[in-house]
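Backbone-to-sequence.
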């Protein structure tokens, strides 16, 4: 009888372990089943359309990625209050998004819907064929996303890797899945045409009001399409900040609702239509710091044929060229003044330039560039021998390093100064001079903001 109690206890422990194991197995199975159902549902949510209507090789997106984001004004859905469905489908907003190869930055350029251009012809991808012609860029979507892709590529000369289309109803559901976004209004905003009526101050707005804020033209500026672009930047920044917050990422049910709303709301190209492809792109975007996500409006000027329409201004070409070459876009509002003291210090010193290559007239070309930037070139000449490496020599005096750095940046050379037995800044050009050239990145005038900027003061 003395041994019965220990035996009973051992049996009880074994029974508890079996129960725990069974419960754990059931829980794991439930998670796997639920996850499988969730993944299947998210995958089935996604709608697909052609990226192009012609046989053009899509650029490799393993490096930099260019995505066209389209906000469709189609009324073909259940939500009321946006007008009757007349069968048309235009892009109420267009965003050319560039993700750098190393995931260091994102530049998102808003293309106004009132932009006019000679739109290219589009073959039928399910919405009818378009023969091409002059008109507003937003109407290209009526012939399918592939026609919008062709129009944007014609306008910007930037080749696109993907497109994402979201309609009004989808936008509302995305914001609602985040439990709203935070905005601040300096003054009351009322626009009956956009279903907008909000007092001044701080607000957590739902999807309907967020859409109204993004769409309103009559409550901002001169009531034009251009005037509302700054307001759209604030709404997009608010969405980015909310979607990347712990309140969403650390809440599985909220994160799933967000993902469900996104996948249910969008139409994408074939290469972006699988969950792994979307997850891969999302992971790259999430790796970018919010202060390196910049929204900007395409610089415009009135169209010559219609003052109520716009065409790209000269600075727009600079923006699109830099996107093509993956050069950071330096907006005038964001340009640093830190280089000015260095430039001023350098301009007080004399500079000599020596050609250490076989390229005839190279020292003279750099001297001309230095003179254009306000530097005094005391002499140019030929080095006593050929040089593989470009060198920037400075005297061992106070401020010489800072001055020489300012000089190098002004003439767009990425070369560090080194102390030598010289009396003035001396640039000795080597065979590597071409590889050291800094791409032209003069500031461009553009309305912009980063996704990290405070939404409320």
């Amino acid at each position: 009888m003395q041994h019965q109690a220990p035996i009973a206890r051992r049996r009880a422990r074994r029974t508890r372990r079996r129960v725990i194991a069974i419960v754990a197995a059931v829980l794991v199975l439930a998670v796997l089943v639920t996850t499988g159902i969730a993944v299947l549902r998210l995958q089935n949510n996604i709608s697909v359309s052609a990226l192009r209507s012609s046989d053009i090789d899509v650029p490799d997106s393993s490096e930099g990625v260019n995505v066209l984001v389209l906000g469709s004004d189609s009324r073909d859905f259940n939500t009321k209050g946006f007008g009757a469905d007349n069968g048309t489908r235009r892009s109420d907003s267009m965003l050319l998004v560039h993700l750098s190869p190393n995931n260091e930055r994102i530049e998102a350029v808003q293309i106004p819907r009132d932009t006019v251009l000679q739109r290219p012809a589009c073959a039928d991808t399910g919405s009818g064929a378009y023969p091409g012609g002059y008109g507003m860029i937003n109407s290209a979507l009526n012939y399918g996303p592939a026609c919008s892709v062709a129009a944007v590529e014609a306008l910007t000369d930037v080749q696109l890797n993907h497109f994402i289309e979201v309609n009004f109803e989808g936008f509302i559901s995305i914001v609602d899945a985040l439990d709203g976004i935070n905005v601040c209004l300096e003054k009351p905003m009322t626009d009956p045409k956009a279903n907008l009526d909000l007092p001044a101050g701080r607000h957590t707005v739902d999807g309907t009001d967020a859409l109204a804020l993004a769409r309103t033209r009559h409550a901002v500026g001169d009531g034009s399409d251009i005037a509302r672009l700054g307001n759209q930047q604030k709404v997009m920044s608010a969405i980015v900040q909310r979607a990347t917050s712990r309140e969403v990422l650390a809440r599985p049910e909220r994160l799933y609702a967000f993902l469900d709303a996104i996948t249910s709301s969008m139409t994408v190209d074939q290469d972006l239509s699988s969950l792994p492809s979307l997850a891969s792109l999302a992971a790259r975007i999430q790796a970018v710091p919010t202060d390196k996500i910049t929204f900007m409006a395409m610089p415009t000027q009135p169209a010559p044929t219609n003052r109520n329409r716009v065409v790209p201004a000269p600075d727009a070409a600079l923006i699109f060229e830099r996107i093509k070459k993956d050069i950071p876009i330096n907006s005038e509002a964001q340009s640093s003044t830190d280089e000015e003291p260095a430039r001023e210090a350098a301009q007080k010193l004399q500079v000599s330039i020596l050609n250490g290559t076989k390229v005839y007239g190279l020292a003279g070309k750099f001297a001309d560039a230095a003179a254009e930037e306000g530097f005094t070139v005391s002499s140019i000449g030929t080095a006593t021998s050929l040089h593989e490496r470009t060198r920037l020599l400075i005297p061992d005096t106070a401020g010489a390093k800072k001055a020489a750095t300012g000089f190098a940046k002004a003439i767009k050379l990425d070369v560090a100064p080194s102390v030598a037995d010289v009396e003035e800044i001396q640039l000795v050009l080597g065979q590597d001079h071409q590889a050291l050239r800094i791409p032209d990145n003069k500031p461009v005038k553009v309305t912009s903001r980063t996704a990290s900027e405070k939404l409320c003061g």
